[in-house]
Automatic annotation (TrEMBL), chain A:
Domain DUF1468: 56-188
Coiled-coil parts of chain: none
Domain of life: Bacteria
Organism: Azospirillum brasilense
Membrane spanning residue stretches: 55-72, 92-114, 126-153, 165-188
UniProt-recorded name of the protein: Tripartite tricarboxylate transporter TctB family protein
TrEMBL record, chain B:
Domain DUF112 stretches: 21-439
Keywords linked to the UniProt accession: Membrane, Transmembrane, Transmembrane helix
Keyword match Transmembrane: yes
Annotated protein name in UniProt: TctA family transporter
Top-level division of the source organism's lineage: Bacteria
Bilayer-spanning residue ranges: 21-40, 46-70, 109-132, 152-180, 259-282, 322-343, 355-375, 387-405, 470-490
Origin organism lineage: Bacteria, Pseudomonadati, Pseudomonadota, Alphaproteobacteria, Rhodospirillales
InterPro entries: DUF112_TM (IPR002823)
Pfam family, one: TctA
Length: 197, 501
């Protein structure tokens, strides 16, 4: 877009973007530092336009709005005097599409932050650990589920050595049984179904 | 005035009896200990501990419940500050600056500020209820559906200030929150919406999996990523107690937060929820350095904590006079009352004065006990942050999972939490902030219900929102606020453009 009046126009959001406050500053461990440096050198995602972070955000917001509109396509809107269940979803969906379009459009016209790199390992590790808990707590019971959660979750970060890991898992499982089952009397399955009453 | 003093004295004699004092203390202690666990917000804590009070006499039971309530609320604020996990809607705001302070080694200051600001708000609001309770209940009646819609729009637009990035993205996040709040069965028609055919979604999405996912899990993932799996270290603890400079910054914020919370708390329904959000927005607007917010501004802890406590106390006015519970916790309290054969309503003040005033006085006592109990414990909570992250984050995950699971004994909620964890991480990467989303989610059902009702009452005339005086002025303030927020962004962008050329 060469004919723009302000070629260096930047959306306010992107000015302070990736390192936000002290929170986002990586506290210097060697692997983290080198990984981040590598991420900065190559542009992570080549999308036409100059603010790929905002572009992705805009597209995500627009798609949420479109999904809402599509899912609600058959719901009755009613009249203004008698609003029915389709009215509010349609209104919010349309507003989201509008907001998404504004964010997308702006990202195409202006410079901005690039899409940051992704931390696949913690993302998968933490999500898998929680899903494993959800899948096992009702059939295998609380104690195995907590042990599995701690074991899988351990892979998300810098893994602990086996002995501290076992101690942590054991302590958490025992503590949870003592607190939630004996202390608060919550109806939780403690051991695998069928093995224990 | 003599009436007031006599009433409060009656209440104090009831609640200061050794038995009741002990119950209040025990309630506050257990409430804090359970409420501080990540994943167990005040609602869950009160619900779990409710059976403890069944065998007590009615006054004692309510006093103990009040203790549990304050304890769990403070415990929830502590979790929000220490590990960035909001257990209820009001702690979402406390997370923003409280956790930032904790990372700077000022967790003790933040915890002490939260306790003291709550104490101040609690005392002031108790006297407000005692002096002006019954007449103030009338104010709530001036608020029809149109006024609620405008008030909530004002609150939602104010929520844009919770984010520090782009205004449009913050608005989009509010809209996403509204969209998520519509999942489930529509109360008016019984139609199910956005349920993907899953019966588990017919009751809608619960607050806890959403908040735990968007804040807790996303925070853990991001923290592990940024440090290569070691976890963030917090700065060394500088001081446990607020310094004179901190007090000077925090007290005007506390006063404003108290006023804001008390005013909004009187409104039945959405009022109490808006309190802490509105107080935070106000602080950021009146501050001479709004850029400090989100980076550990002490006002950002003091004001919402004061507002939250003031609102949760002020909401006793509509609850006792109109019988409308403003949130889930108050609904539980009403449930506890009915178990003991007490029907909340206007006659409660006349028929059972020792109960009513005993409860009012026990709020006062509960607040004081809470501070006495918790100030020595701050050192202990802060030490929690020194646990290596490799040990801390699996423990947080375990508590989040169990807390979410025990909500309805449903593994589906844990699944939802994992899903929202991924969403929260993606939103973070796209520089979209989850705090406005949470307010949209909490206010969504109320907004839709009142919007429909207002239009129904006006016969489909949308001008009703502008023509009714209270509603119209609230809308005007909302429009003004939006303009104020958009203008500097445009101006700054132009300035930058010129600077670059």
């Amino acid at each position: 877009m060469p004919s723009l009046p302000f070629p260096n126009l930047r959306p306010s959001s992107s000015v302070a973007t990736p390192p936000r406050g002290p929170s986002a500053t990586p506290f210097g461990t060697a692997p983290a530092a080198s990984r981040n440096a590598a991420a900065d050198e190559r542009t992570p995602l080549r999308i036409p336009g100059r603010a790929s972070q905002d572009l992705a955000a805009g597209l995500l917001i627009t798609s949420f709005g479109l999904i809402a509109l599509w899912m609600g396509r058959d719901w009755p809107t009613g009249t203004l005097a008698y609003v029915q269940s389709g009215f509010f979803p349609r209104m919010i969906g349309a507003l989201m599409v509008l907001a998404g379009a504004v964010v997308t459009g702006r990202s195409l016209l202006a410079h901005g932050a690039a899409l940051p790199s992704w931390g696949w390992r913690p993302l998968f590790g933490v999500t898998a650990a929680v899903l494993a808990f959800a899948g096992t707590v009702e059939t295998l019971g609380l104690v195995p589920a907590v042990l599995i959660l701690v074991g899988v979750g351990n892979l998300a970060g810098q893994p602990l050595r086996p002995v501290p890991l076992a101690l942590l898992g054991g302590a958490l499982a025992a503590g949870c049984v003592a607190l939630f089952v004996w202390g608060l009397g919550l109806p939780l399955q403690v051991w695998p179904l069928g093995v224990w009453p | 005035m003599t009436d007031l003093i006599g009433n409060l004295l009656l209440g104090l004699t009831v609640s200061l009896s050794p038995d009741n004092l002990l119950l209040c203390f025990g309630g506050a202690l257990i409430g804090t200990l359970i409420g501080v666990l990540p994943g167990l917000g005040p609602t869950a804590t009160v619900a779990m501990l409710l059976p403890l009070t069944f065998h007590l006499p009615p006054v004692g039971a309510l006093i103990m419940l009040a203790g549990i309530f304050y304890g769990s609320q403070y415990g929830g604020s502590a979790t929000a500050i220490l590990v960035n996990l909001p257990g209820e809607s009001s702690s979402v705001v406390t997370c923003l600056d409280g956790h930032a302070m904790a990372r700077q080694g000022r967790a003790g200051v933040a915890l002490a500020t939260a306790a003291l600001a709550s104490l101040f708000a609690g005392i002031v609001t108790t006297f407000l209820i005692a002096v002006a309770g019954p007449p103030l209940a009338g104010v709530a009646l001036a608020f029809g559906p149109a006024e609620y819609v405008s008030l909530m729009l004002l609150g939602l637009i104010g929520a844009v200030t919770l984010a520090h990035g782009s205004v449009v993205k913050a608005i989009a996040m509010i809209l996403l929150g509204l969209l998520l709040s519509m999942v489930g069965t529509d109360v008016n028609s019984g139609d199910t919406r956005f349920t993907f055919g899953l019966p588990q979604l017919y009751d809608g999405i619960d607050f806890v999996p959403l908040a735990m996912g968007l804040f807790g899990l996303a925070e853990i993932i991001a923290s592990l990523e940024q440090t290569g799996g070691v976890g963030r270290t917090t700065a060394p603890i500088a001081s446990l107690w607020p310094k004179r400079e901190d007090v000077r910054q925090a007290w005007p914020a506390t006063v404003r937060g108290t006023v804001m919370g008390a005013l909004l708390g009187i409104l039945p329904g959405g009022g109490a929820t808006l309190g802490s959000f509105a107080a935070y927005s106000l602080e950021k607007k009146v501050s001479r350095h709004p850029e400090r917010f989100g980076q550990g501004a002490i006002e950002g802890v003091a004001a919402p904590e004061a507002a939250n406590n003031a609102a949760s106390q002020a909401c006793f006015i509509p609850m006792l006079s109109l019988g409308i519970p403003p949130n889930a916790i108050m609904a539980l309290m009403i449930g506890a009352m009915t178990i003991h054969g007490i029907t909340p309503g206007p006659q409660i003040m006349v028929k059972q004065p020792e109960l009513f005033w005993g409860m009012i006085a026990s709020m006062l006592i509960g607040n004081v006990i809470l501070v006495i109990l918790n100030l020595p414990m701050i050192g202990l909570w802060v030490r929690l942050l020194r646990v290596p992250y490799g040990y801390l984050f699996p423990a947080i995950l375990v508590f989040c999972c169990i807390g979410t699971y025990t909500l309805n004994n449903s593994a589906f909620n844990v699944l939802l939490m994992a899903l929202f964890g991924v969403l929260g991480y993606v939103l973070r990467k796209l520089d979209c902030e989850p705090a406005p989303l949470m307010l949209g989610f909490v206010l969504g059902p109320l907004l839709e219900e009142n919007l429909g009702r207002a239009l129904l009452l006006s016969g489909g005339d949308p001008t009703v929102f502008a023509t009714r005086p209270i509603s119209g002025s609230l809308l005007a303030v909302a429009a003004l606020l939006l303009l104020v927020m958009v203008m500097p962004a445009i101006r700054r962008r132009r300035d930058e453009a010129f600077k670059d050329e």
